[in-house]
Amino acid sequence: MACCVLQITGLIFGGVGMVGTLAATAMPQWRVSAYMDGNIVVFETIWEGLWMDCISQLGIRLQCKFYDSLLALPPPLEAFRALMVIGVGLSILSFLTAIAGVKYTQGGKEGPQAVSIFILAAGVAFLLSGTLVLIPVSWTGASIIRDFYDPQVPAPLKRELGAALYVGWGSSALLLAAGAMYC
């Protein structure tokens, strides 16, 4: 009985982590403009994401523009895109594998060997997808913090941590927890 509860909990954590990974990949709020020097009059907010930049003017008007060329992107952004897309795909695959493993466990018709292979494969895939999500999110967060405290970076170019980074960290933690439960 405890095994089934652990599998169901892992499935819930993996499902929420999968949705969070997809949301973090699509969200444009990876880097958000920082307001410094006591300026309380703010007319626009700049968001920078993996796929587009957005400008919100007074919270009323939102304009987003997808990046024009894949070749014009900086290499870290290209790598982060690739890691997040692979992480999304792997989290979906691991979630489906976990469903199959839980289904075979509930059915009980297959031998314990077949069930353990599905469960172990799902656990390893969840761990790998959580790691793939954690790398670009943490790297981006570290670069934002480094640039924020760098006196060489002008104040208008400084950014703060966006909501997508927090969603990415949370979904990565859930994917890693699901992988640990299945392993």
UniProtKB/TrEMBL annotation:
Keywords: Cell junction, Cell membrane, Membrane, Tight junction, Transmembrane, Transmembrane helix. The keyword Membrane applies. InterPro entries: Claudin (IPR006187), Claudin_CS (IPR017974), PMP22/EMP/MP20/Claudin (IPR004031). Gene3D superfamilies: 1.20.140.150. The chain crosses the membrane at residues 79-102, 114-141, 161-182. GO terms for cellular component: bicellular tight junction; plasma membrane. It is found in: Cell junction, Tight junction; Cell membrane. The keyword Transmembrane applies. It is a multi-pass membrane protein. One of its GO terms (molecular function) is structural molecule activity. Belongs to the claudin family. Claudins function as major constituents of the tight junction complexes that regulate the permeability of epithelia. This is Claudin. It comes from Chaetops frenatus (Rufous rock-jumper).
